[in-house]
Automatic annotation (TrEMBL), chains A, B, C:
This is Carboxymuconolactone decarboxylase family protein. Pfam families: CMD (PF02627). The lineage of its organism: Bacteria, Bacillati, Actinomycetota, Actinomycetes, Mycobacteriales. Residues 36-113, 180-257 form the Carboxymuconolactone decarboxylase-like domain. It comes from the Bacteria. It comes from Nocardia jiangxiensis.
């Protein structure tokens, strides 16, 4: 006989759906844990009702999740999600390593340094479990960015405009903007091959939404929508997935910004259309 | 006819339960917002399936929630939950002000400074809405703790042992431990009247679980259980509530620590019983 | 002729400069790691192009870095930077212990508790490596601040005005402001000897910029500039260093606040000059 939990769920199908999704996403069996956080929260909600939704693919949800768990500093979830991303084959080790560099810029080096170590360890584990040698790192492509400082700044300014969908660039005679933003973040990091723009957007928006600084949240949500790298529906879905992994307070702020930036982008698209027609 | 939302819920009763809980907790009507984060996440899960659970009272959940939203730096949720805590009458302004001081210690002064300003603003708003003058605050002096540095340290050492359920105290000849922990945190802050031990435990565990440093999480979960200020069931319920407001990665770490500390505390209680019988 | 480095940079001198800077700052050899985060990010950028810059000394950069890695909760970077600060002789153990107390106030006690343990461990390690006994710590008592509650509050109000460069003090009849800010943070902590004002400013600004609460960021950037404890150039340099260790989103917010507060401080200086001339 099933006892009815009036406060939570009495639906065994929902729990079963959650356990199946857990197995598929995490590539290990769901835990037998009856604590409310795991049974009612993680299985019945996060796996049964978020990971199973359409709107973002499982692979796309992994980039958001990896950024969120690494931001949250919780050791076991970082290990488990890095392992699952590699073991499922959803991400190659080359992609996940490139994601660590992107994450480093938006979350800071200390958190990225931990993530990078865990990637190495879990990549060894996946290969060990398969009875394989760890393959040598893939030969990386020649960088598309120039080494000459002037040319690098110019490339940074071009990428800054393209990525941010903005008509202007920041003043280079400022250490943060010149030596940091133009020279490295946009002059070198964003133009690297190895991750598509959509994946870079997912990592970036997760990090800025976690970090709480209002202007970067606004500008990266705007650029993700304006560039059409993320559709409006995908961005809404992002907010729900992010809520589970970084909590409702941050997600509810993100959700407001998304609503505002949709209006702004729609207005701009309508104005562009009016101009060209 | 029920339309089936394959991605989320097909249960209008669940949404209705969520909207009713939202109204009771937040003291305003639930938003008409169909975005997944709000409709599927906040209403259908956080309000329909977390706030309605037994295990912790609504008043107790407020202390956890206030610590989580203030930790997360999200302006609107802080404003809304401070307003709701005061407007519902669940917390007095004296209690919430004492909670801000406790929060300052465990979350850092900058976050507490923002929370303190919002408490003043929302207390004015609540009084204004009721056509009342804002009553004068309770006076700070006289302090209940000793002024003499030696006596204050001794008081701090005693409170350190009682709050942490530990037989030893840290070396005072260390600025962090002596001037900070013994002199202020346990010598002055914890012994203040105005909040009960259970409320101080709720704020503390929320903050240490947010902050990620492993030893403080372990020691405060242990002490909350060992002191019986929180029951095992209440602590499990805490983890679920915390998951919603600070995200699953941090909550899953907390959940593990809770499981370990329950075993430790049970072992100690059994050993104590064996000794006394 | 430019040799092409297929892994990212075309400048082997840049990688070499980064590896040399790493060795000098970290007091251990740079890792042989070709992952993008380490080779392209940490060595080629953070060490080759940030730590080598003028504008802040290596010792000054350590206070920022220690606050950032402790805020980020990443175990290995905390250990490595505490070790490097002590092993290089850039910071004495007394200074770093005082820095932990200051950090506790602005980042919260749980993070500081972990940092404090690591300082003790690394101080033992440095002494062990040198075949020395760990010397006894400096005694806590007597405190330099008054014991009488009224006198302590008065001392706190004076320090509050001086540190914040403000003409007013907060109302003491509020637990956060009275028992916390005036009584402890400014009544005891800031007036402690053992760290200069510039060092306390570096820790404070790093912590408030990490914590995201807008008012404290504004007020501490303002006070650091207004007091002339940090020059305009040093503050700009701070933003770049901070970006690397706490991520670009928080740094971008800080950079804007710096620009605004420079204007405010310049205006005030001009007005003062006009008045006195």
């Amino acid at each position: 006989m099933t006892t009815i939990d009036t406060a939570g769920t009495s639906d065994p199908a929902r729990a079963e759906r959650g356990r199946r999704a857990f197995g598929e996403v995490m590539t290990i069996a769901a835990p037998d844990d009856s604590s409310p956080a795991i049974a009612r929260g993680l299985i019945d909600f996060v796996f049964a009702e978020i990971w199973t939704r359409p709107g973002l693919t499982r692979r796309e949800r992994r980039f958001i999740t990896l950024a969120c768990v690494a931001d949250a500093d919780a050791e076991a979830p970082i290990v488990e999600h890095v392992y699952a991303a590699l073991n499922s084959g959803d991400l190659t080790v080359t992609e996940i390593r490139e994601a660590v560099l992107h994450f480093a810029v938006y979350a800071g080096w200390p958190k990225a340094s931990r993530l990078n170590m865990i990637v190495d360890q879990q990549w060894e584990r996946v290969n060990h479990e398969r009875g394989q040698q760890v393959p040598p790192p893939e030969p990386l492509l020649p960088l598309v960015t120039p080494s000459d400082p002037q040319a690098r700044l110019a490339r940074g300014e071009q990428a800054f405009r393209e990525v941010n969908c903005l008509p202007y660039v920041p003043d280079r005679d400022n250490p943060y903007q010149g030596a940091g933003i133009l020279n490295f973040v946009f002059g070198e990091m964003w133009p690297r091959p190895g991750l598509g723009m959509k994946e870079r957007r997912l990592i970036t928006v997760a990090c800025v939404a976690f970090q709480d600084a209002p202007y970067p949240i606004m500008s990266h949500v705007y650029a993700a929508l304006k560039s059409r790298d993320l559709s409006f529906t995908e961005m809404d879905e992002f907010a729900l997935h992010f809520a589970a992994y970084s909590g409702w307070p941050k997600a509810s702020y993100l959700d407001r910004v998304i609503a505002e930036q949709k209006v702004r982008v729609l207005d701009e698209w309508r104005a562009d259309e009016a101009e060209t027609s």
